[in-house]
Amino acid sequence: MHETDQHDLSDDADYAASQGLRSNLQKEAAKRSGPSETSGAEVVYQKDNVTIHPTQYASERISGRLRLIKQGSSLFMTWIPYKSSHTSNDVGQGSNARLFEKERNLYTIRAVPLTDVRSIRRHTPTLGWQYLIVVLSSGLAFPPLYFYNGGVKEFLATLKQHVFLGRSADDSNVFLVNDLQDPLQRSLSSLELPRVVSVANGTSSISASSVPSIEDSDKINGDNHVGSLRLSEYSGKQRQKSHDPRDLSIQVPSLPANAPDKGPGDTEKDLTEAPVASDPLEKTQCRKEKHGQEAATRVGTFELVDCKEFDRLSLVWGKPRQPPLGFEEWATFLDGEGRIMDSKALRKRIFYGGVEHSLRKEVWKVLLGFHAYDSTYAEREYLKSIKKAEYETIKSQWQSISPAQAKKFTKFRERKALIDKDVVRTDRSISFYDGDDNPNVTLLRDILLTYSFYNFDLGYCQGMSDLLSPILFVMECESESFWCFVALMERLGPNFNRDQNGMHSQLFALSKLVELLDIPLHNYLKQADCLNYFFCFRWILIQFKRELEYGMTMRLWEVLWTHYLSEHFHLYLSVAILKRHRKKIMGEQMDFDTLLKFINELSGHLDLDSALRDAEALCICAGENGAACIPPGTPPSLPVENGFLNSQQDDDD
Amino acid sequence: MASRRRMLLKVIILGDSGVGKTSLMNQYVNKKFSNQYKATIGADFLTKEVQFEDRLFTLQIWDTAGQERFQSLGVAFYRGADCCVLVYDVNVMKSFDDLNNWREEFLIQASPSDPENFPFVVLGNKIDVDGGNSRVVSEKKAKAWCASKGNIPYFETSAKEGFNVEAAFECIAKNALKNEPEEEIYLPDTIDVVGGGRQQRSSGCEC
Hints:
The complex is a heterodimer of chains A (653) and B (207). Chain A has 653 residues and is an alpha+beta fold. Chain A contains 26 helices and 10 strands. In chain A, helix 19 (501-517) packs across helix 26 (608-628). By secondary structure, chain B is an alpha/beta fold. Chain B is built from 6 helices and 7 strands. At the A-B interface, helix 15, helix 21 and helix 25 of A face strand 2 of B.
């Protein structure tokens, strides 16, 4: 259970539960700690009628009070929903009231230390209320907080007085919190503090006693003093964060000239008095120049991909695709003995352009891991020969089964029958596999059957023939195809597990990524009861093989296999494609059936290059927050050793 | 309101891999057979408008992956089903033996309100293969099983040649309609599926 909590941070229910647990512990701690240990907390900011919109329905909005509370040198944020009026007005009946109570608990923000906040995104729509999205270091984002009574500027100004608040260089509406550029702070942060630190879940790593017990809405009474904060363990503590190079470019520029809310005497002014001021016009110009090149390569711009701002899409696209890598250029990556000198540069090159078909045979073996990047020509030749012999040995295991033995070997017969059925319906429209008695179909069969003996536990599963087909097509060599397939299955094998946990964890991660990168779409899918993402099952299981024509599948796969920006780039690609069609999905109010049909029928109509560019932009924009959406060990990551990746994420809804 | 809306009848086709689920569906809906179908990954469905006297219904036919490893997806796909079609290949004994598993798995995952009376239809497919010489499951055996499971209607079909497919789906549609809750105002006793069916060679539709 503990392991589950560690990586399943963004499951709302778990999160709420852990929060509840924590607040209980707090109360205990507060009881135990005598008055001598507690010191006063000061409410430095308070705003009423700050509201969240869990759904599109106005009746389900939840209003509450947002506060910033200072305790010693630490600052905490709370948002406590109001209790009474809403419940009685809108949801009278018992079950609804309980439901509401549950929701209310779910969304309550109980004393989150600002050291755990990664960034705050300000939205100033031309119509409607201003709102903020608070993203934690863990990747968890709170639902948008709508300021019905204004107060966004004051909130940010107050924050600025207490924590380091920097603006993202690329988006003046993104404020990065605790970007520890101050050397003193940084050295503080490097102190190992005695608490449980989990990689993925920053929020639950706070020890119980270090959180102020001000979560109870009953205590909201307007005075500025909140008692019993215990900070002895908190003072001076800074979250340890791995620093992304992107963060270093953060500056705090003055507001862009067109900022709607700039005015003299504004509280905002505090924010504009920044150490590094740049000319707003210059900044605008600079951003224009970056169109279609390096735009959107920084935190916080992903919202621009939304359809309503479709005309600005070019702003956030990834880099233009390059021509595929050819022989001459490939040679420049190799040293005299055939070692790849700079594997990262090679992977980057392939990520942006793929590989010429005639070169795939060489390059795929490296990308898939059959050959090491630093292997020499000679080593590769040698490996090839011993692996060929090894393959023949494994193959002979099933070849030696006589008809008489097969009669008593049901599992073998069934497995063989299943494979026989599938190879004759795998890519038969490709000339390489077409026609009667095609020897390549027999090779497909032999390799799959051999694999099912090599990995007898996993055996054969539908979809594997789709994954093998392009590999054999490229390699044109039985044993090398086998070993490349083995390497691929090291990563994708869990897709075919009996309990389907590999698929479930990917679909779960996909839902979390959509939640991060497209909240309206997420909300829509949630209310349409589509959060299981089964409509993307085929995409994920066989890596878009059925969605693209053959050549494009090969192009996509080599891009994915570079793991250049992320091991899970296919998930970002999925988000990108969904985003492209969100207008239709949401506009037509598709239900699960219609959505599944719609997604299935996108097959053959995907524009891979533009989808890749979208996905690149999304991946870069999501950054650490995106990575935090993906549980460790999610395929195609190599399996986590202790096997704590289990199927607890089955029910996300 | 219900009478104004075109009613949707949801049908799920289950059975072992390669028994011809996709082919049966395509033969019925598109009147086509192809040798180049791919193994179904995940699920898909086709719809067909069917007419009962003066009313139109939409038959939504779900085709699912046949490998039992994918059964955990069933929860999402089976829910709200009005009829379940169990398909086996008359030339493959295992596919017949597995009918029971498919039936039970469906009842668990779809959890219909009245599992005892939930309508199933069994199709023995591929009767065209090798002129019937490679057949291993006799009609008698199949009918006996169907009888033991509450008189499940049974049809022998060839998706390749289109034999008996229309008649089978006529029965499937009729059974699906019977399963619909009674909010619908008008339930005809006899149905007339568009296109009509040819003479059926089967135990017939007992409904």
